[in-house]
Amino acid sequence: MQIPVFTVDAFTNRPFSGNPAAVCLLEKDLDEDLHQKIAAEMNLSETAFIRRLHPGDDFTKSSCFGLRWFTPTNEVPLCGHATLAAAAVLFHIRKNKNAVLTFVTLSGELKARQVEDHIILDLPLYLTYPQVSQNFISIGDMVVQDLRYSPDTKKLLVRLSDAYERSDLEELQVSTQSFLSAEKTGKVKGLIVTLKGNSSGKHKGHDFYSRYFAPWYGILEDPVTGSAHAVLSSYWSEQLGKKEMLAFQCSRRGGELKISLRSDGRVDIAGKIAIVLKGNLIF
């Protein structure tokens, strides 16, 4: 069997930055266990599988497809950067001419469209609720200003004090193994550490910064995370009183996201892409 496979760096326009995702185009259904085996073989934070929903569907002409996402260890209910990568493969490699692509996923229908050099994802917007205690979370000796939990996504949001700068977040060292040891209830599946942006200095222009850790899914640190920004968008919109925001995820690779809260309670998250690999899986 041969399966076309691509690697796309998402939320960047420069190769070898942003968040890499593998994208597989499935002409026919795979045996269930092969999804996880392929994701483990690709060994990226996410592998996306695009499938035709009907026998007559075509990757070049159709506008609606099935989409699933797998880390090297688990299937996940939502992945923004791999959705961006999937849309990029259809728009840029398969030359799909539809104005809007719809993906049927575990998180419902997600839509992607092109606007100039960005691909815009229409994602759910997830609310957060105050938490009293950090419990297991150790952010070194840094001061935590706010602690929130998103029950829909099982993500814990830790906001650092406004006294810190982007460089402090970039230099932060955390022990993801200690998270696994301390949190075994299943309540938390991802940890977002976030910081308010600066209005001055060399990094001015970003409304907020973040880093994201998901060792419970086999991802020690994810470079740029669309699903985390579906949580961050609601939090920072409330805190800043803004509907339009520019965010930067401060991983080693780094990536930028343009955010627009919609009137229908969802969020548009836009990013650029760089396609870095084209090939075939053969087995």
From TrEMBL:
SUPFAM superfamilies assigned to the protein according to its UniProt record, in alphabetical order: Diaminopimelate epimerase-like
Q: Which residues form the active site?
A: E46
What is a single cellular component term in the Gene Ontology annotation?
A: cytoplasm
Record flagged with keyword Isomerase: yes
Give the record's keywords alphabetically: Isomerase
Cited InterPro entries = Phenazine_PhzF-like
Q: Which GO terms describe its molecular function?
A: isomerase activity
What family, per the record? Answer: Belongs to the PhzF family.
Q: Give the matching PANTHER family.
A: PHENAZINE BIOSYNTHESIS PROTEIN, PHENAZINE BIOSYNTHESIS-LIKE DOMAIN-CONTAINING PROTEIN
Q: What is this protein called?
A: PBLD protein
The organism named in the record is Anhinga anhinga
